[in-house]
Specification:
With 366 residues, the chain is of the alpha/beta class. It has 2 domains: 97 residues, Outer Surface Protein A, domain 3 (Alpha-Beta Complex), CATH 3.90.930; 182 residues. The chain contains 10 helices and 18 strands. The strands form 5 sheets. The chain has a 9-stranded mixed beta sheet with strand order 10-11-9-8-7-6-12-13-14. Strand 10 and strand 11 form a beta hairpin. It is elongated and about 75 Å long.
Length: 366
């Protein structure tokens, strides 16, 4: 917490003692505790890190928002004094919180989410000639292009595609072809919207940076499976944008659209039902008109807090889950396929002791 090389050991501990004697403890506004069924997590939304904590400490931290440390110790009848002191000191030393005389001087972070784009993410799957010949005219936040053949030709058409689909950033998937990689990269490097290039079916996995473009090589194929469970800790993201979006929306389906190889418009690559086709677009009908007439927009507003099992998961505000929610009751949604993580046990599928949620016979609807 402090650089103490100019302090003697005695002076340092005296300073720490003075700090800890301040009556209130407060987490930094970017550090937010989230409670799960078996454990809790503090999300650091500024530095993208997490701190696992017991659920009892979550409850203590919630009480500390308007009570002093002494009041909390009294509430627990002095039973956890040593543990409270040790945990709070650890959080302060780790940069998650601080002691203060005046907690009201440090307001909570604003958790409002919004985006000026009606579609934040549009995925186009190898129908670029159809796109160029259509009446599509849309602005999106992020555009993903999946190229399955003629990669060099498509890359040279980016300017024309950009006239149809204006985007803030661009991600491109293309198949591995060693002799074309340098040519393709040269054509992309002058197109400053390209932030990420994913080369699939490559000989090996790698992540590199060339200028402003991140280049990811993967051995995997591009495959979309209906209701596949893709939840994995490697895909978790801790930042203010995802956290705030997750408070009221589905972090994968919200404001998403997908156009397949035949020009069909769907909610996402994993979704089996069609909304329409780009051939239906004309001067009076745009893609949002088609989306608004469908019932798929309902999925945009399904948050994890309204979804069984997910609502009890400590990872729910950092998870991008491609499973399609289904209606469980007037109050809750659910999934047909179990997640790779069972928050009722705090276990991943590949860990000893993992069981499916259904095998535990626990009522989560309370």
């Amino acid at each position: 917490m402090f650089l103490a090389k100019n302090f003697t050991k005695q002076q340092y501990y005296h300073l720490i003692s003075q700090i800890m004697n301040k009556p209130y403890f407060k987490l930094f506004s970017n550090c937010l505790p989230v409670k799960g069924y078996t454990q809790s997590i503090i999300y650091d939304l500024q530095f993208g890190r997490i701190e696992y904590i017991p659920n009892l400490l979550f409850d203590i931290l919630k009480h500390l928002t308007n009570k002093t440390v002494v009041e909390i110790k009294n509430f627990y009848e002095q039973e956890y004094n040593e543990g409270i002191d040790n945990y709070l000191k650890h959080l302060a030393d780790s940069g998650f919180g601080f002691y203060t005389d005046s907690p009201k001087m440090f307001p909570d972070i604003d958790l409002t989410w919004d985006n000026p784009f009606e579609i934040t993410n549009l995925v186009i799957d190898n129908c670029f000639d159809l796109i160029l010949g259509s009446k599509l005219n849309v602005s999106v936040d992020d555009l993903t292009l999946i190229i399955r053949k003629n990669a060099e030709e498509v890359c040279y058409k980016l300017e024309s595609i950009n006239e149809k689909i204006r985007s803030r950033s661009l991600q491109i998937f293309l198949p591995y072809h060693e002799s074309l990689l340098d040519i393709i990269f040269d054509s992309l490097s002058s197109f400053n919207k390209v932030k990420q290039l994913v080369i699939y079916e490559a000989p090996e996995h790698s992540v590199n940076q060339k200028g402003a473009i991140q280049i990811i090589s993967t051995k995997n194929k591009i495959e979309f499976a209906h209701n596949r469970n893709n939840v994995h800790p490697n895909y978790f993201t801790q930042n203010i944008t995802l956290f705030t979006e997750a408070q009221n929306y589905h972090t994968y389906f919200n404001r998403k659209a997908f156009i397949d190889m035949n020009g069909n418009i769907k909610l996402s690559p994993e979704h089996v039902d069609l909304i329409g086709n780009i051939n239906e677009l004309n001067a009076n009908i745009d893609i949002m008109d088609i989306i608004k007439k469908s019932n798929f927009k309902v999925l945009w507003n399904i948050k994890k807090d309204d979804t069984l099992v997910c609502k009890d998961c400590e990872f729910r505000y950092m998870c991008i889950d491609t499973r399609i929610p289904i209606k469980f009751s007037d109050r809750f949604w659910s999934h047909k396929v179990d997640c790779n993580y069972n928050p009722l046990l705090g276990k991943w599928k590949w860990e000893d002791g993992y069981k499916n949620v259904a095998d535990l016979s626990i009522d989560l609807t309370d």
